[in-house]
Write a structure and sequence with these properties.
The protein has helices at residues 22-29, 59-68, 80-88, 107-120, 149-165, 172-186, 223-226, 230-237, 255-264, 282-302, 315-322, 354-367, 385-393, 415-421, 424-427, 438-451, 467-473, 483-492, 497-502; strands at 97-102, 125-128, 140-142, 145-146, 191-195, 212-217, 247-252, 269-271, 330-334, 344-348, 372-377, 401-405, 431-435, 456-461. By secondary structure, the protein is α/β, with parallel strands linked by helices. The chain folds into two domains: 22-325, 3-Layer(aba) Sandwich (UDP-N-acetylmuramoyl-L-alanine:D-glutamate ligase), CATH 3.40.1190.10; 330-491, Mur ligase, C-terminal domain (Protein-Tyrosine Phosphatase, Chain A, Alpha-Beta Complex), CATH 3.90.190. Strands 4-3-2-5-1-6-7-8 form an eight-stranded mixed beta sheet, with helices on both faces. A six-stranded mixed beta sheet has the order 9-10-14-11-12-13, covered by helices on one side. Helix 2 (59-68) packs across helix 5 (149-165), helix 2 (59-68) runs parallel beside helix 18 (483-492) and helix 4 (107-120) packs antiparallel against helix 11.
Length: 511
């Protein structure tokens, strides 16, 4: 029998105006002064707002300012800055229930599925994900609607002013997280699905006490920051497991490490078992994890510990759990109007590290077993390109083609770096071209596929930084930030190796 739930909304009072003084704030927190660890090397970008030009209240100006704050901020790892910023805004995350999602791969898709399921069960649902594809506003959504430029402008200005006044050296991701938490409170959401940016234990999102934690998978990525072994990375991500808060873990997580953390904090743990179909279809695995998360929410509701219940008998909820966000094995076909040219199949996938590339190859093999492949690939310079390319080439033969491109982003690997990652054996497995522009690479691949004598599948993969240009080349009309904003974003989001080595790097995830 289908479940029918009345939407229970908690009352919301007026949000406080954030004009607290430094001395008052310190007294309230029991501080005599800011700790030396929290002091920035120089003032963060927010402090520069005091002498900002006349257009300093515009969306574009504030977004450029946000992308530049990492130039002025060098703080030690920890949650102190985020806790202080959150407290200064009256702890908005306490106003709604939260599902907290971490993992090496799959966390964005699982977050998307859970949010859609909650929305279709009648809840006003916030979703926070990163990074974005085309537009910064994609990161913060309520019931699928992106935060508006006006809303970004208003709340970002508040955050800059408070962080400058209280001398909180917040980073890009800390400010973005605060923007999301505050926006959701202003929108009076019932619940939020909150995706971590990087890791878990020290991620900016880890200041919350959720109704449920979810860890999707553990793989080798961000090893310079999270550790050089799968076990070290697992311990970092297990840091989101909170006392007495149930946690759902996917089949690709080291269960012993997850169980150890859960036992130490008395958190009920549910492990999603591996099923054969997961080997060939990562969406099936992500759906199973999201569904189990919804089951656990329902159990908490029955125990009176949560207001969130998901109608798993509803076909609308079932379809939500099976859906995919953009660029996650996104398959479509293109053909020019009034043309006799061959229809071209396109696959867009943000697979950007070796485990994700391996899963992509498995799914391509299953979905297109007889078709010729034409890849458009680019990578981030900090990824294990050699291993990723090796995995990709297992699907290729001498008739397949790989268009190597450079993402229009400073973190994008140069064509020279990609060449170094290509093994001597790999050079003979497929045909290669090297194109400096993603847009040109996509257009060349589509044109060649149209002229082919056999059906070809054009696969764009390797980095999220390829996707905006690829979608534009394919004719998508979507919200996008201006070239000026993107230029500043690319220039200042990468982390200098010197700061990593010195131990002064704060988590600032952009991929």
């Amino acid at each position: 029998m289908s479940l029918r739930y009345a939407l229970r909304r908690r009352p919301f009072g007026r949000l406080p105006r954030h004009t607290v003084g430094v001395a008052d704030f310190h007294a309230r927190r029991g501080w005599n002064s800011l700790s030396s660890q929290a002091q920035p090397a120089t003032d963060n970008g927010a402090a520069l707002m005091e002498e900002a030009p006349a257009d300093s209240t515009t969306y574009e100006f504030l977004l450029q300012r946000l992308y530049q704050v990492n130039r002025f901020t060098a703080v030690k790892l920890g949650l102190e800055n985020m806790k202080a910023l959150h407290a200064a805004f009256g702890e908005p995350a306490a106003k709604y229930e939260i599902v907290h999602v971490a993992g090496t791969n799959g966390k964005g898709s699982v977050s998307f599925k859970i949010a859609k399921a909650l929305e279709r069960s009648g809840y006003r649902t916030g979703l926070f994900v990163s990074p974005h594809v085309s537009c910064y506003r994609e990161r913060i959504q309520v019931n699928g609607t992106l935060i508006s430029e006006a809303e970004v402008t208003e709340t970002l200005a508040e955050i800059f002013n408070v962080s400058a006044q209280l001398r909180i050296p917040a980073t890009f991701f800390e400010i973005t997280t605060m923007l999301a938490l505050q926006h959701f409170a202003k929108q009076q959401v019932d619940c939020v699905v909150l995706e971590t940016g990087l890791g878990g234990r020290l991620d900016s999102t880890n200041i919350v006490t959720p109704a449920l934690s979810v860890i999707t998978s553990i793989g080798m990525d961000h090893t310079r920051i999270l550790g050089n072994t799968r076990e070290q990375i697992a311990r970092e991500k297990a840091g989101i497991i909170k006392p007495q808060v149930p946690v759902v873990v996917g089949p690709q997580t080291p269960l012993e490490i997850m169980a150890d953390r859960a036992q130490r904090v008395d958190a009920p743990l549910v492990a999603v078992p591996f099923q054969g179909e997961f080997a060939e279809d990562f969406n099936a695995e992500n759906t199973a994890i999201a569904r189990e998360a919804c089951i656990q929410l329902n159990q908490r509701a029955l125990a009176g510990q949560s207001e969130l219940q998901v109608d798993l008998d509803s076909q609308r909820v079932v379809s939500a759990l099976e859906s995919r966000p953009p660029c996650r094995f996104e398959v479509f076909h293109i053909v020019r109007p009034n043309s006799t040219e061959r229809k071209v199949t396109i696959v867009l996938d943000v697979a950007h590290n070796p485990p994700a590339i391996e899963r992509l190859v498995q799914l391509l093999t299953k979905r297109f077993p007889q078709q010729k492949m034409r890849f458009v690939c680019g990578f981030s310079a900090d990824k294990d390109m050699a291993k990723a390319i090796k995995s990709l080439l297992t699907l290729c033969n001498s008739e397949d083609y790989v268009h190597l491109v450079k993402a229009n982003h400073p973190r994008g690997a140069s064509l020279e770096e990609v060449n170094l990652a290509l093994t001597q054996d790999g050079q003979g497995i497929a045909q290669f071209s090297r194109i400096s522009s993603v847009e040109d690479g996509v257009k060349d691949a589509v044109a060649a596929a149209r002229m082919s004598n056999e059906d070809e599948v054009v696969v764009v993969c390797g980095s999220v930084f390829l996707m905006a240009e690829a979608r534009k080349a394919l004719g998508f009309k979507e919200p996008a930030d201006s070239p000026a904003v993107n230029a500043v974003a690319g220039s200042h989001l990468s982390t200098p190796a010197s700061r990593l080595a010195s131990g002064t790097h704060a988590y600032n995830p952009t991929s």
